[in-house]
Specification:
Chain A: Pfam families: PP-binding. Chain A: Keywords: Phosphopantetheine, Phosphoprotein. Chain A: This is Acyl carrier protein. Chain A: Residues 9-95 form the Carrier domain. The complex is a heterodimer of chains A (102) and B (160). By secondary structure, chain A is an all-alpha fold. Chain A has helices spanning 10-23, 44-58, 64-72, 79-82, 84-101. Chain A has one domain (10-101): Non-ribosomal Peptide Synthetase Peptidyl Carrier Protein, Chain A. Chain A is built from five helices and no strands. Chain A is globular and about 35 Å long. Chain B has a single domain (3-152), classed as Thiol Ester Dehydrase, Chain A, CATH 3.10.129. The chains are: A mainly alpha (102), B alpha+beta (160). Chain A binds chain B through residues 45, 48-49, 51-52, 55-56, 61-66, 68, and chain B through 75-76, 100-105, 107, 125, 127.
């Protein structure tokens, strides 16, 4: 699958489809560089819906609580989790981690 | 049920923490101010209170699942269906299953049966967060009164 900056990875394609459907955002507006909150206007409740759909689609558990805590404590910039290409990289890592444990 | 106090669950009859399942009983009171308006001369339990009943059964399930370390708050109701009517004096069987235990949220499927027939069902979503100040105690008290703490192995039982 392509990792073209404009279209992103296969993971991005799935995540973007989920966001478009769950948060009612035009699919074309969602790019790997999009910030879920600042650019797409996704609020915390909608993000939980997206997390549920992502958890189900990829068979993982996004550690939202830990991420939120790290951002709130200033340990990690929010972009690391909420810019979609970064979010997708973390999803890929969680999927790989789960596969390694299986 | 004490409808005016939003105490919907009377007793928990089964809890399977490993499987993420709960079954509870809720007895609709013979009389309530709610029935004076819903509807005059034709009392029916409002669908919104049936939804609350499913949410409370789900909430107790999540509380037990999380060992009373976090409080669930209802954030979403999906696919709610009200398949029949129910009025004063009915005994309702309420069940809920934990569909997903996410990070900071949970999803359940819940249903209510009456006289062996499906009354309503829904998919419910909750945000889970640390107990706000002062809420932990009353929630544990209520959980003990309906028999949840004893079934969950979290202490209590005397008042169950």
């Amino acid at each position: 699958m392509s990792d073209d900056p404009a279209t992103g990875s296969a993971t991005f394609q799935r995540v973007a489809d989920i966001i478009a459907e769950t948060a009612d955002i035009e699919r074309d507006k969602i790019t790997p560089e999009s910030h879920a909150i600042d650019d797409l206007g996704i609020d915390s409740l909608a993000f939980l819906d997206i997390a549920f759909a992502v958890d189900k689609a990829f068979g993982i558990k996004l550690p939202l609580e830990r991420w939120t805590q790290e951002v709130n404590e200033g340990k990690v910039p929010a972009e690391q989790y909420f810019v979609l290409k970064n979010l997708c990289a973390r999803i890929d890592a969680l999927v790989a981690e789960k596969a390694a444990k299986a | 049920m004490r409808l005016e106090y939003f105490e919907m669950i009377d007793s928990v009859v089964r809890l399977d923490r490993a499987a993420g399942q709960i079954e509870a009983t809720a007895r609709v009171p013979e009389a309530s101010p709610v029935f004076e308006g819903h509807f005059p001369g034709h009392p029916l339990v409002p669908g919104v209170l049936l939804t609350e009943t499913m949410a409370q059964a789900s909430g107790y399930l999540i509380l037990a699942h999380l060992g009373f370390e976090r409080m669930p708050f209802l954030t979403g109701v999906d696919k709610a269906r009200f398949r029949s009517f129910v009025g004063p004096g009915a005994t309702l069987s309420v069940s809920a299953t934990l569909e997903h235990d996410g990070s900071g949220y949970a999803v359940t499927k819940a249903a209510i049966r009456h006289d062996g027939k499906a009354l309503c069902d829904a998919e419910l979503r909750f945000r889970t967060m640390p107990f706000p100040d002062g809420l932990d105690g009353p929630m544990r008290q209520r959980a003990e009164a309906i028999g949840l703490l004893a079934l969950a192995g979290l202490g209590g039982g005397a008042a169950a």
